[in-house]
Design goal:
Layout (H helix, E strand, L loop, with lengths): L5 H5 L12 H13 L6 H15 L4 E6 L10 H22 L3 E6 L12 E4 L2 E4 L22 H21 L5 H14 L3 H20 L12 E6 L3 H6 L1 E3 L6 E3 L4 E4 L9 H7 L5 E5 L5 H11 L8 E5 L6 H14 L5 E4 L6 E3 L5 E3 L1 H17 L6 E5 L34 H16 L1
Parallel strand pairs: 1-2, 1-14, 2-5, 5-8, 8-9, 9-10, 10-11, 11-14
Antiparallel strand pairs: 3-4, 6-7, 12-13
Helix pairs in contact: 4-5, 4-6, 4-13, 6-7, 10-11, 11-12, 12-13
Bound molecules: phosphoenolpyruvate (PEP) and manganese (II) ion.
Keywords: Amino-acid biosynthesis, Aromatic amino acid biosynthesis, Transferase
Protein name: Phospho-2-dehydro-3-deoxyheptonate aldolase
Family: Belongs to the class-II DAHP synthase family.
Length: 443
């Protein structure tokens, strides 16, 4: 099996690509990247696909989360560790509640490129190209920094390699010990104002673990976890250079991440992103917003997953709290009627963004929970498996989303508003969300 050439992809009018000033520099970077070793391995992608197949069979749940946009400056041991810590802590709570394995996937080690709704950004009467992620141009609002530089793609590769290396070490090197992870949760419950609501669940988990230990269950499964990397496959030069033919199966794999997804703005059926990901064997995702029809979703499923292969395709719906109840059922119905069982994941972040009067892009914890609850309700009504959640979060105590345990107000946002793109849940908000999801999974 082969995959389309870059030239072929460029004839498909790819959306959301940088406007590089020097095409020969782009070609040189692409060539250089194509000689670099793969970041992930085909066998790992196959393992994740079979785990996602168990989600599709109602036997597992997916937790996918991380920054909206990673930054090169954020590639530090502390930052990666904090993110993993909060993701692993969330997964324990959900796994206990759901009584099925939680498949853990980070939005990390490659999440450096952003689609933008506007090509230009205007501040105080000055218009410059929008920031498109560290993979493309600089965050600083100066004309020099906003010029797209293809050499940044090499930095993406290096930053992703370093992040993956740390991640692999953390999740196998003792850091992922179940008892330690659970201690983080009990600390959260004790030090936050949500003691009554979650104490019971946290206590139950503690007792279950103590019981396992007295039984002598103390093997590797208590100390290590499988953890996978994912990002939006946006920049064709990068994604194409890292697409390789696997020597065992002779099949193409995108070796820049285990799971890659197509964003809401680049999922045109005859577009370049769909063409590229249709040709790789990785498990893949597609974001679906409130305007998508059942017929469109079905056409995407047929194109991206022609063999209706379990675990191959994940639909990440991001409808908005007000729309999920109406927009989601017709899509599920069309897909069900076609006999398909993709993984259904809720992204309760991207349909619930708004701007405050003091100019911050934010999201409210309440609205995020409202979309999640609405999404669970729809799946319950339609006898469909709510397969997982996709969250923008960080392990740090930032102030980017309002509400939640700390009751963050709009006036608090200026304290630690650090995101390079969309507002993320902070550590405590993320853990609270995990307990909220857990309540639905226990129903
Ligand atoms: C994102 O996940 O950061 C994103 C841009 O999402 P969407 O494609 O759903 O808008
Ligand atoms: Mn985002």
């Amino acid at each position: 099996m082969s995959f389309p050439s870059l030239e072929q992809l460029h004839t498909l009018k790819p959306q959301q690509q940088p406007n590089y000033p020097d095409p020969s520099a782009v070609a040189a970077v692409n060539l250089e990247l194509s000689t670099r070793p793969p970041l992930v391995f085909a066998g790992e992608c196959d393992d994740l696909r079979s785990k996602l197949a168990s989600v599709a069979r109602r036997e597992a749940f997916l937790l996918q989360g991380g920054d909206c946009a990673e930054t090169f400056a954020g590639v530090t041991a502390q930052n990666v560790k904090n993110k993993l810590q909060v993701l692993l802590a969330m997964a324990v709570v959900m796994q206990y509640a759901a009584q099925v394995p939680v498949v853990k996937v980070g939005r990390l080690a490659g999440q450096y490129a952003k689609p933008r709704s506007s090509d230009m950004e205007t501040r105080d009467g000055v218009s410059l190209p929008s920031f498109r992620g560290d993979a493309v141009n600089g965050f600083d609002f100066t004309s020099d920094s906003r010029i797209p530089d293809p050499r940044r793609l090499l930095d993406v590769y290096n930053a992703s390699a370093a992040t993956l290396n740390l991640t692999r070490a953390f999740v196998t090197g003792g850091f992922a010990d179940l008892r330690t992870i659970h201690n983080w949760n009990t600390n959260f419950v004790r030090t936050s104002s949500v003691v009554e609501r979650y104490e019971h669940l946290a206590d139950e988990i503690e007792r279950a673990m103590a019981f396992m230990i007295t039984c002598g269950i103390d093997d590797d499964s208590m100390r290590t976890v499988d953890f996978y990397a994912s990002h939006e496959a946006l920049l064709l030069e990068y994604e194409h250079a890292l697409t390789r033919i696997d020597s065992r199966s002779q099949q193409p794999y995108n070796t820049s991440g285990h799971f890659v997804w197509i964003g809401e703005r680049t999922r045109q059926l005859d577009g370049a992103h769909v063409e590229l990901l249709a040709s790789v064997r990785n498990p893949i995702g597609v974001k679906l917003g409130p305007k998508v029809s059942g017929a469109e979703a079905l056409a995407l499923a047929e194109r991206l997953d022609p063999d209706n292969e379990p675990g191959r395709l994940t639909f990440i719906t991001r409808m908005g709290a007000d729309n999920v109840g109406e927009a989601l059922p017709p899509i599920i119905e069309t897909i069900q009627n076609a006999g398909r069982t993709p993984v259904w994941v809720c992204d309760p972040m991207h349909g619930n963004t708004f701007s405050t009067s003091n100019g911050y892009k934010t999201r409210s914890f309440d609205r995020i929970v409202t979309e999640l609850n609405g999404w669970f309700d729809v799946h319950d009504q339609m006898d469909s498996w709510p397969g997982g959640v996709h969250i923008e979060l960080t392990g740090d105590d930032v102030t980017e989303c309002v509400g939640g345990v700390g009751e963050l107000a709009e006036t608090d946002l200026e304290n630690r508003y650090e995101t390079a793109c969309d507002p993320r849940l902070n550590r405590n908000q993320s853990l609270e969300l995990a307990f909220t999801v857990a309540e639905r999974l226990t129903d």
